[in-house]
Specification:
The protein is an alpha+beta fold. It has 2 domains: 33 residues; 99 residues. The protein contains 5 helices and 6 strands, in the order βββββααβααα. A hairpin with a 5-residue loop joins β2 and β3. α1 crosses α4.
Amino acid sequence: MRCPYCKYEDSKVIDSRASNEGRVVRRRRECLECTRRFTTKENVEESPIMVVKSDGRREVYDQEKLKRSLQIACTKRPISTSTLDEIVTKIENELRDKSHDEIQSREVGELIINYLRELDEVAYVRFASVYRNFQAKEEFLSELEELKNPKKDTQ
């Protein structure tokens, strides 16, 4: 690994740690020439996930688009950026664990809905109103009623 300081071509690994549920390895390195330390991250190269939209179009999964959607839903709510980052990571891991090259956009939306329902009811309703395309106040009120009185599983 090339040193970012002196550009020497060789370094030694001092410490390695897995992160992001084992999908990333963080390595602390020391340059063998200038002895300065630096950090590298090693990721598995995974094939891109294609999201199939409701009209049949396909687009590459975009982590930033997902994060923006969550940020908009959580505007002015007491939710930290790190919490949103964790949700994005969990959703992306769930998508990758399905081991499909393509995933329906509604599956991504349902994952978001499920996480927001647990996280914050206001953010959940904001996202649901756009995601489910509420056209009338009755649809909105129905969703609020469902939040207030969730259906019990009868199994």
